Amino acid sequence: MNGTEKNALDAGRYPDTEDLDRTGFLDRTNDYFTKSFSLSDTTYLAGETKKNGVPTGWKLYRIPLIDFETTNPLKGKTWDNIHHLRLRLSNASQPTTIYVAKIELVGNEWQELGIASDSSDVFSKENADSVFAISVVNTDDNANYKPPRGVQGEFDRINQIRSKEQSLVMKFNDLPGSASGAAMKTLMSLTGERAQSYLSYDRMKMYVHGSSPWITNDKTDVQMFMRFGFGENYYEISQPVYDSWDESNNRNSINLDLKWLTSLKLQDSTSINKYAPTDIFRDSTNYKEYIFTDDLGIETGKVIRIKGQPSLNRIQFFIVGVKNLSNIPISGEVWLDELRLSGVKRDKGVSMRLQSRFNLADLVNTSFAYRRQDADFHMLQKRLGSNQSNESFNFNAGFNIDKLLPSQWGVKIPITTSFANTVNKPKFFPGQDVLVNQSSPPDSILNINNSISMNVSASKTSKSDNKIIKYTLDRLKTRFSLNRRSNSNEIQKEVLNETYSGGLSYALPFGRNNYIMPLKWMSSVPWIGEKIGNTHLYYTPSAVNASVNYNEQLTQRTPRRGEKSPDDYNFGLNQSYTMDYKVTEIITTKYSRTINSNLNDSRGYQLNSIVKGDVGFISDIGENFNSSFSPVIFDWLKPSFSYSSNYRWNKSRDKNIEGSNISSQLRLSSGVTLSPTRLVEIFYKPSTARGASVQKPTRNIPSRSRRRTPGRIVTEEDQGVEESIEDNKNSSKDNEKKKENRVFKSMYSFTKKFSPINISYNENYNKTGLGVIGEVPLAYRLGMDQNHGLSHSNQVGSNTGNFDRKRDFSIRSGLSLTRMINISFNYAQNISSNLRGSGLEQRSVSRDYLSYGQYLENGFPFVGWSLRLTGLERNKFLSKYVNSLSIDHATTGKESRSWQFDQFSGPPISFFAIDDFISSYLDKQRTSRVNMSFAPLVGATVALKKGVSINMRHNRTFSKEITANGGQKIFNDQSYLLSANYAHKGGFSIPLPFLDNYKVNNQVNFTFNFDMNKNRTLQKAQEATKFAETTFTSSWKSGIRLTYSFSKSVSGSVVWEYRENDSKHTGKKVDRDFGFDVNLAIRG
Q1: What is the pTM of this model?
Q2: Per-residue confidence at 740, pLDDT binned at 50, 70, 90?
Q3: What is the pLDDT of residues 929-982, one digit of tens each?
Q4: What is the C-alpha separation between 947 and 985, in angstroms, rounded?
Q5: Eight-state DSSP code of residue 909
């Protein structure tokens, strides 16, 4: 509804408009559903309420959605996009007032199947709506409804309200003779504990009520039936329905023994357990039927049928219905109430564990563990067991063979082995509700896992004097491992997995003294000569590493039915080569290459193939090259440069796929750190910077060497000058030096306020190629060439690959105005482009930006900054109350834009001409967004004298977004946060003799939180001149938590929270929460 003219109390107090759904825009669409009916007509009357037998006037009307008409009959009837509702009262002959308590869309989980004319169970919905229908009847809407004795709605003790109690109604009108009407409820897929819960109860119960002229206390022509199961497998119970709830004779209610029901599937005429000797049991191939009789041996009409192999843990549907036992049409109602499971099974479960360790010096170490857990065992926090018992045994052993060898050999050969066996036995047969004999379960339902593994490695830990051994065996490491796992379950008779892996690695480090000093002759050059002259040029790599690893896997599957599956075999070979080369102290490089190949075609002869140089089918090749240059020429200027490339080549084993796929990533990084203070120190260093030990003079401390002239103050500039001045001729020179030092000292003090200036520039290239034919050049693999110059397969079409380029620039620094005020600055901008092989290109820009104006319509690139003010607790007034106080502020602005081009031939985006590119290609712009964030606009952190800490923050964010169609949105968000915390530790002693003055330590924590948020969105179309508010939300919450720790083992807390939410669309909502918890730790 869109409100009334007198809507002053509506959320937000917005005037009444023709905005039907409160989105802020005029609604012009005139498509809707409509239905008119008379309040005196009983067609849609579903019930009315009475008080003391007198009608209250409140009536319930239930209108099927199918009866509504549409304004446009050509459009389909869909109820998934309803935004507003309008009520209209007409044809009133006199002033009339109508009260509406609630309007809601309701449905029923029970769906009518229709009518079956005979016992074939083939239901049809044709003309069935007027004959059989499903509805509900309850204590609130139907005055004539009386629930079964002892059944009532749930009582809400907080609001002192009892909820309604209702029953499902199967209403039949002129149901033909021998015909049936039914409805079905489909359940969601049952898994986990939900599926097990049906097996955890003893009985299924339900109340049944009959109301019809053809139903009496002694005779009835109406039969009720209920089915539950999955597919064509179900349990069915059918019985006659007598008048009312039949509580005196208890013939209508259902009380079904589930254990007896499930065991009935396994019985035959010789083993059946009957309730009465005269009961009748019929058994066929796919059907079992049990017919109940009374004490006289007369059939009662109650029958249980089992079709197929249903299971209680695989129930997918419930079907309920009525059947006409006579030959003439009948009418009436049958109510169903309280379908439930009762009688929880309380089977006991046991869990046990045993483990031990045994070590024989440092030669052998062993351990084993045994565990058993019954199917009904479960932890306290779980409601049900796993319905599966498991038993496991693990054994581990380790041997250090090298301990038996001479120690001078310096070898290390550890061997580890392990064995594990696990057997899982289900409590029920898989997919069934039949119990398994745990003493002798069939192998076909057991889940058995066995695994054996062994690992061996060998290496040399000591260095040999023999140079041949030193550069061969000393540098080698080898390893071998095997793992054999077997598994069997109800589907697979055996699944065998065997894995063999091994490797050989060689590492050769070079000495650190393999260098020459070719620039030593430049040592005499001022300023930089000493550093350049000491340059070491290394003529050998730092290290060379090589390794070869293989992995062989075999999987064999033997199902319980059908033929054995083909072997799944794989033999992979991995080669890796790495070289580290330190050219100088400031230039380092690293190159690595990996090759992955497959030798499946050489099964059984892999070693011979490798010896002959055949490594099989090469599927992957990777190359990496990294280099860094970090010169240290001046202390005040520290540049750094790095180059990193990553190349990947991949080819499919499918011979029908032509060419290979390649990718290359290149990253160029550069940075400069400029220290203004270090730059000034080239010309001037204060005495403290030179390492002098002379202390700053004060008025109380006289000079140790001589008396000071009265009234003369020794300044910092005098430090470093000889304390004893004996010759008056040098005084003039000293005065000149003092003047010079004052200038440099001022410069030094000024530069000390600035933090080092950090400038960085990075470029990232990401190139991919699909279906590339030919050998890829080395320059492309190392990232030095952007074009590989090769052709592409026709199979890839225009999708030949992508080319991404990203450029980042940033500069940051800081300024200390005083010891208490610190400011930091930062500016960054990013430019990226993505070009696809089809010619489609996307570009984007992001940079720090200062926006201003009512709707952020103006702005320019500018730095972001943060301000921090500390030490406020030194104030004479504040120092009485606070230990520390600091204030924060931060401002960050961003602008981001994106474009999309097709077959674009324009210029790239320049770092220094972004505005020109924006103005030139506005027609290609996809999105634009500016953002101003003050996080926080103001913030404070306070620590009070009494141990209370307070944190306050106020954040504001303004954003403007422009879409491709010219529409604009303005986002205005603000938040207020306040948190306070107080902690107190204490304790007391218990002065009792037998407790020996036991000391109890406790701790109390008090936390208060307040959070307020306001969000507002304005929007306008391209042709509009004004913004309209589309969204407004306001919320705040406040909470208190009190935590008390009585000891390390006992703690508890009390929580209270109040929340208010107000929205333009949903109105105001208030929530209140209160809770407490107690934690008791039991340690043993």
Answers
A1: 0.69
A2: low
A3: 999 999 999 999 999 988 899 999 999 999 999 988 878 999 999 999 999 999
A4: 11
A5: P
Residue 43 has pLDDT above 50, yes or no: yes
Q: Which helix (H) or strand (E) holds 679?
A: helix 676-680
DSSP letter at 455 equals E
How big, in percent rounded to 5, are the helix, strand and coil portions of the chain? 10, 50, 40
Closest of 607, 581, 604, 603 to residue 592, by C-alpha: 581
Q: How far is CA 404 from the centre of its chain?
A: 53
Tokens of 586: 């400031």
Interatomic CA distance for residues 103 and 118, integer angstroms: 40
Six-digit token string for 84:
């507003």
Q: How many CA atoms lie within 13 A of 958 on its CB side?
A: 14
Closest by Cα among 349, 344, 346 to 377: 349
What token pair was written down for 202?
């003893």
650 and 620 Cβ atoms separated by less than 8 Å: yes
Instruction: Determine the Cα–Cα distance for residues 960 and 857; give it in Å rounded to an integer.
Output: 8
Amino acid at site 78: T
Q: What's at 71, amino acid-wise?
A: T
Q: How many CB atoms lie within 10 A of CB 350?
A: 10
Q: How far apart are CA 312 and CA 341, in angstroms?
A: 12
| CA distance linking residue 1028 with residue 14, whole number of Å | 12
User: Which structure tokens are listed for 466?
Assistant: 């023999």
In the structure encoding, which two tokens stand for residue 549, read together? Answer: 């690893």
Phi and psi angles of residue 915, each rounded to the nearest 5 degrees, phi first = -65, -35
Q: Which of 612, 758, 558, 732 is nearest to 675 (CA)?
A: 758
Query: Does residue 707 carry a pLDDT above 80?
Result: no
Residue 694 and residue 687 in contact, taking contact as beta carbons nearer than 8 Å? yes
User: pLDDT tens digits for 169-222?
Assistant: 999 999 999 999 999 999 876 676 677 777 888 999 999 999 999 999 999 999
String of DSSP letters for 812-848: EEEEESSSSEEEEEEEEEEEEEEEETTSEEEEEEEEE
